[in-house]
Design brief:
Layout lengths: L1 E7 L4 H10 L7 E8 L2 E8 L2 H4 L2 H6 L4 E7 L7 H4 L3 E4 L2 E10 L2 H10 L10 H15 L2 H11 L2 E9 L2 E6 L8 E4 L3 E4 L2 H7 L2 E5 L4 E5 L3 E5 L7 E2 H7 L5 E2 L2 E2 H10 L9 E4 L5 H11 L2 E2 L3 E3 L12 H11 E3 L1 H4 L3 E6 L6 H12 L4 E6 L26 H5 L3 E4 L2 H8 L4 E2 L1 H4 L8 H16 L1
Parallel strand pairs: 14-24, 17-18, 17-21, 21-22, 22-23
Antiparallel strand pairs: 1-4, 1-10, 2-3, 2-4, 5-6, 6-7, 7-8, 8-12, 9-10, 9-11, 12-13, 15-16, 19-20
C-alpha cells in the first residue's frame, strides 16, 4: 500500500509536498518527487518521512509545472533504497509512480529481461514502467499502450506517469486501490480526496475501473479496459483517512456504522478506542450499546503506524513506545477495547496486557473488521496465512476475556458498496496469484523479518 500524488499546474513541487504529507499514513518507508521542465526531469527520493527527506532547497530545485510524488509502504522487494519511487526511463522518456501490487511480477520481470529491459529494483512499478515503455516504442499510441499494460499486468494498480509534459493517470480494470481526480487552477490526482482538499483542489470524482486520463492543454478521459469493480474493503476499515471520500462514501461515516453493526452481549462499564483509526467505530459501538465512551489510551503521535512497519520486531518495538494508559479511567472497570482490525495480534496482545496491568476487572476485545483469514496480494501487507491470528486460538493469544469480530454482513452493510474486494476475508481472489508469486512473497517476508 502506498500513496501517490500528481499535479499539472504552476510550480508543482510545493503542493506535491503538501499532498504527500497529507497521505503520509499510507507509507512511511520512503518517499520521492519528480518534476519535468523543458524536457528535463528533476527528482529527489530517499528513505524516511516526507518532512525529513525534503527541505526548502529541495522544493526550489524541483522546478516544473507537472510532477509526481509517492510515499511507499513495502509489500514487494527487500531493498528499501532501490525500491523508492518515482522510477523513470529514457527509452522512451517516462516517469511513473503507483499504488498497488502486481501479482504476475516475477513472470513479467523475466519476460522484460528477455526483451532487453534492465530491471534495477525489486519494486513492481518498474515492470509497469517497462511494459508501458515497450508498448510506446512499438505502437507510438498512448491509449493502445496503456490498454496493453492493463492486459499484461495483473493485480492492483493506480498509476500516474509523466510522458513529455503530459500528466497521465490510469487505474486497473477492477479499481481495487483508490484513486481520485480534482480541479483547481490546474489538475490533480491523489490516492485520497483529503489530499486534494489540503492541496487546494476540488474533488471531482473517482477514476473508474480501466480508465485512462490524459492532462495536457485539455483533459481527455476514456474507459479502455473495464472488467468489473472490486474496491478494497480495508481502505474503509483502516487505511484511508476518516476525512476522505472513496467511491462516494465518507470513511468516517462508514466507521461509525461499522461500530454500530457489531453484535455484543457482554456486560461492560466503558468503551475505549485503540487510537487513532478505531475512534469512529468505538463511538458507534458505544452509542448502539449504551456504554460510556472514554479515552483510556494515549498515542505517541511521532512513532508512526505499527501495522505498516515491515518486520515483526519493528512492530513490537513500536507498540511498546506507541501507547500509554490513563490508569484512572481503567482501574476497576470492565473494559471494551475497540480496534479497527486484528491482523497479526501483536498490538492487540500488548494492549490487553497493558490494560490489565492498569487495573481493569475485565478486558473484552472488539474488532470492527471481520476475521482476516487469507493473504492479501493486492497491496496490504499480510501475504502469509501463518501470520494471521484469526487462524489460531486468537482469544488465548490475545489474552482477553472475550474477542468479538464484525460479521461480513455487518461490514457490507456499513460500506454500502456491492462490489468489494474481500479476498482476505473469504479467499475470493478476482485475480488469483500464481503459486510462484505466493511462495516468493512468503520468502521475501521471511528475509525481511531476519534482516
Amino acid at each position: 500500500m502506498c500513496g501517490i500524488i500528481g499535479i499539472k499546474n504552476e510550480n508543482v513541487s510545493y503542493p506535491i509536498y503538501t499532498g504527500l504529507n497529507a497521505i503520509q499514513h499510507r507509507g512511511q518507508e520512503s518517499c520521492g518527487i519528480i518534476t519535468e521542465y523543458n524536457g528535463k526531469y528533476y527528482m529527489k527520493k530517499d528513505l524516511g518521512l516526507v518532512n525529513k527527506v525534503f527541505d526548502e532547497r529541495d522544493l526550489i530545485d524541483l522546478i516544473g509545472n507537472v510532477g509526481l510524488g509517492q510515499v511507499r509502504y513495502p509489500t514487494v522487494g527487500s531493498d528499501p533504497k532501490k525500491n523508492a519511487q518515482p522510477f523513470f526511463t529514457l527509452d522512451p522518456k517516462i516517469a511513473i509512480v503507483h499504488n498497488g501490487n502486481v501479482v504476475n511480477y516475477y513472470q513479467l520481470k523475466a519476460e522484460l529481461k528477455r526483451e532487453g529491459r534492465k530491471i534495477e529494483s525489486g519494486c513492481d512499478v518498474e515492470v509497469i514502467l517497462h511494459c508501458l515503455a515497450e508498448g510506446l516504442k512499438k505502437t507510438k499510441d498512448l491509449e493502445e499502450s496503456v490498454y496493453n499494460v492493463m492486459e499484461r499486468v495483473k493485480g492492483s494498480y493506480s498509476c500516474l506517469a509523466l510522458i513529455d509534459d503530459k500528466l497521465i493517470a490510469f487505474r486497473d480494470p477492477y479499481a481495487i486501490r483508490p484513486f481520485v481526480y480534482g480541479k483547481g487552477k490546474g489538475h490533480a490526482f491523489a490516492s485520497e480526496s483529503s489530499a486534494l482538499d489540503l492541496m487546494g483542489y476540488s474533488f471531482e470524482r473517482d477514476l473508474k475501473p480501466g480508465e485512462l486520463m490524459i492532462v495536457d492543454e485539455k483533459v481527455e478521459s476514456k474507459i479502455i479496459n473495464k472488467k468489473g469493480e472490486r474496491h478494497c474493503m480495508f481502505e474503509y476499515v483502516y487505511f484511508s483517512r476518516p476525512d476522505s471520500t472513496i467511491e462516494g462514501k465518507t470513511v468516517y461515516d462508514i466507521r461509525l456504522d461499522l461500530g454500530k453493526n457489531i453484535d455484543f452481549d457482554k456486560d461492560a462499564d466503558i468503551v475505549i478506542p485503540v487510537p487513532d483509526t478505531s475512534r469512529p467505530a468505538a463511538l458507534g459501538f458505544a452509542e448502539k450499546n449504551g456504554i460510556e465512551y472514554r479515552e483510556g489510551l494515549i498515542k505517541n503521535r511521532y512513532t508512526g503506524r505499527t501495522f505498516i512497519m515491515p518486520t515483526q520486531k519493528m512492530r513490537e518495538t513500536a507498540v511498546k513506545r506507541n501507547l500509554n494508559c490513563i490508569k484512572s479511567v481503567i482501574k476497576d472497570k470492565k473494559i471494551v477495547l475497540v480496534d479497527d482490525s486484528i491482523v497479526r495480534g501483536t498490538t492487540s496482545r500488548r494492549i490487553v496486557n497493558m490494560i490489565r496491568k492498569a487495573g481493569a476487572k475485565e478486558v473484552h476485545f472488539v474488532s470492527s473488521c471481520p476475521k482476516l483469514l487469507y493473504p492479501c496480494f493486492y497491496g496490504i501487507d499480510f501475504p502469509c496465512k501463518d501470520e494471521l491470528i484469526a487462524r489460531k486460538d486468537y482469544k488465548k493469544l490475545i489474552g482477553a476475556d472475550s474477542v468479538t469480530y464484525q460479521s461480513i454482513e455487518g461490514l457490507k452493510k456499513a460500506i454500502g458498496i456491492k462490489e468489494l474486494c474481500m479476498a482476505c476475508l473469504n479467499g475470493d481472489y478476482v485475480i488469483p496469484p500464481s503459486e510462484e508469486f505466493a511462495l516468493k512473497r512468503k520468502e521475501e517476508r521471511v528475509k525481511m523479518e531476519v534482516m
